[in-house]
Amino acid sequence: MRSEAKLLLIDGPTVERLLAPGDVLAAVREAFELHSRREGRVFPVVREHLSTGGVFGIKSGDVPDQGLLGFKAAGFWPANRTQGGEPHQATLMLFDSATGRPLCVIDGNAITTVRTGAAGALGLQALARPDSATVTVFGTGVQARSQLSFALEVLPSLRRALYVSRDRQPDAAFEAAFARRCEISCSQDANAAVSESDIVITATPGAGPLFDAAAIRPGTHLNCVGADTRGKRELPDGVLERARIVVDDAEQALRLGELQWASALPCIELGDLLSGKAKLERNPDDITVFDMTGLALQDLTVARFIFQRASTQGLGISTPWPW
User: Which CATH entry fits the domain spanning 2-111+297-320: 2.40.37.10, 3.30.1780.10, 3.30.9.10, 2.60.120.10?
Assistant: First the structure.
């Protein structure tokens, strides 16, 4: 009955309780493969700068055969740090695709963090050299932690992590999070860290190039997370021209990602590699780049299992929502 319809509200702590890295990896992989087969649709992205200094965006899409429909409203508000808050903010909604009735509202911060880390892990599995031993991470925020955590999970060969913080000073909390999993240390010289690394992960707000192109040695793989808006970048000129480029979505990468700075270069979508639609034979000296702008389908496939589990376990707040 329409008058008995409910809307489920799922807050951040509940989402974190229900997230499991293995399940997220599987859901994100499914999203990439759905995108590759064009069984899932990604709608045009909204990404706009605000007069408040924030950036607001909407990513949406659907999987018609699964009845999966929804969006994520998210963005970046740097001034939140002065209030002790997280700059990234996200909220997800799923809808009944037959009626348009809203099914749930989900805190999207943890989902965004973990699904992006999982996407990075899939990029590493597909592109990084399997004997990679040293990784450099730019950034020490929640996304840098997620990326490094997943990297250590899927690449057992990684033994050493260097990180470059915003102020080039050690971050005790960041180091403590990984001290039992790898040798970790702060590097004050970005170029030196990059030159010593098999993998480079850039997870910053994307305010500009983070190192010199000449620092990258042959065989390096780069996961680039921070360029997700027009005008953002983390890579210097000359890197993409030397690299084999993989993206999550070609159109988004050209508009919002690192590829906006080198739009004439060819690229492959990661979903096509995962689904077998395309192949990339990596030579030991190849430089590879995974340009990550984030797929709406990643949010939706993860949100779906969060919604299903919360409903089954009686979690969240159910409120009447007649339509």
Answer: 3.30.1780.10
Any idea of the CA torsion for 272, 277, 280, 281, to the nearest 10 degrees? 150
Q: Residue 77's CB: how many other CB atoms inside 10 A?
A: 18
Rounded Cα distance, 227 and 245, in Å: 14
Q: pLDDT 10s digit of each residue in the chain, 323 long?
A: 677 899 999 999 999 999 999 999 999 999 999 999 999 999 999 999 999 999 999 999 999 999 999 999 999 999 998 999 889 999 999 999 999 999 999 999 999 999 999 999 999 999 999 999 999 999 999 999 999 999 999 999 999 999 999 999 999 999 999 999 999 999 999 999 999 999 999 999 999 999 999 999 999 999 999 999 999 999 999 999 999 999 999 999 999 999 999 999 999 999 999 999 999 999 999 999 999 999 999 999 999 999 999 999 999 999 999 98
Count of other CB atoms within 10 angstroms of residue 107:
20
Within 8 A by CB and 6+ apart from 102, the residues are: 7, 93, 94, 95, 96, 321
CB 59 within 8 A of CB 266: no
What is the phi/psi pair of residue 169, to 5°?
-105, 155
The model carries a pTM of: 0.94
The alpha carbon of 249 is separated from its chain's Cα centroid by a whole number of angstroms, namely 12
Identify which of 66, 57, 58 has the alpha carbon closest to the alpha carbon of residue 96.
Answer: 66
CA dihedral 251, 219, 153, 88 (to 10 degrees): -40
